[in-house]
Amino acid sequence: MNTNLLVYKILDLTYNTLMKEKKRILVDMSVTLLHHGHVRILKQASNYGDVIVGLTSDKDLKKYKGYLPELKYCHRKEIIESIRYVKEVVNVNFYTDEKDLKKNKIDFLIHGNDLKKKFNKNKIKILKRTKGISSSLLRKKAAKIFKNLNNIK
Q: Is the N or C terminus of the chain more exposed, i.e. has fewer CB atoms within 10 Å?
């Protein structure tokens, strides 16, 4: 066997082995207002495999949070897809469950330490949230600034 062919076969086997071992990691989020906390959890998640973002629909946000997001689903998805740590964006239920994982061929879920739903411990990794930031805090801060601007006039 010629040396070039042998090297090619070894490289091909190595590549295929690496590709099979790479995990599909789901990070579920709403991303109503993108902030550095979102980017940090996506960066951390990328250490575990290919990051698939499970993005909540506008309808579910209205149902569970009581408001429609500032940006429509299609725009939030476009923004998330542009982040270098993200391989894919899929639609998931507000409360992500085993069905979402199975449907999207996910190996495990990564979530912030604010998870409210019980989940199979073998299928989840909890990461700390970034302190002092959330979309809700940004929304409140913006509302306060807007209110103060209106009081100045």
A: C
DSSP secondary structure, 80-104, as one string = HHTSTTEEEEEEE-SS--HHHHHHT
To the nearest whole percent, how much of the chain has pLDDT over 70? 82
Quickly list DSSP for 11-69: HHHHHHHHHHHPPEEEEEE--SS--HHHHHHHHHHTTTSEEEEEEEPHHHHHHHHSS--
Element (H, E) at 75: helix 73-81
C-alpha span between 137 and 143 (Å, rounded): 10
CA neighbor of 119 nearest in space, from 57, 28, 55:
28
Q: How many CB atoms lie within 10 A of CB 45?
A: 23
Poorest-confidence range of 36-40, 100-104, 145-149? 145-149
How far is residue 72's CA from residue 91's CA, in Å, rounded to a whole number? 13
Predicted pLDDT at 143: 85
**Which phi and psi (to 5°) does residue 27 adopt?**
-115, 110
95-115 mean pLDDT: 87
Q: Give the amino acid at 147.
A: K
